[in-house]
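Sequence, please.
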């Protein structure tokens, strides 16, 4: 009902990255440039929100993508190019 809709809107995440964005990590330049390849968001209030990024060093890394969270990858050094 209406209450559920309001709660969902209140819980809506502000996303930092989108699929296709190119990024670097300020603390790990040796990883090279990365490309966001997956975006996962929970539909549940308070649920997780993360992205997977393929870096030039061959590794796929997973980061929190909720800009309102203190754990967001932005605050740990991931930057869009």
């Amino acid at each position: 009902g209406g209450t559920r809709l309001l709660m969902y809107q209140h819980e809506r995440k502000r996303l930092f990255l989108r699929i296709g964005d190119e990024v670097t990590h300020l603390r790990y330049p040796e990883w090279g440039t990365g490309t966001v390849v997956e975006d996962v968001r929970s539909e549940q209030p308070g649920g997780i929100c993360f992205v997977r990024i393929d870096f030039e060093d061959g590794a796929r890394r997973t980061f929190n993508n909720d800009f309102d969270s203190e754990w967001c990858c932005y605050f740990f050094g991931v930057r869009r190019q």
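Residues 41 and 49 are 4 Å apart (CA to CA).
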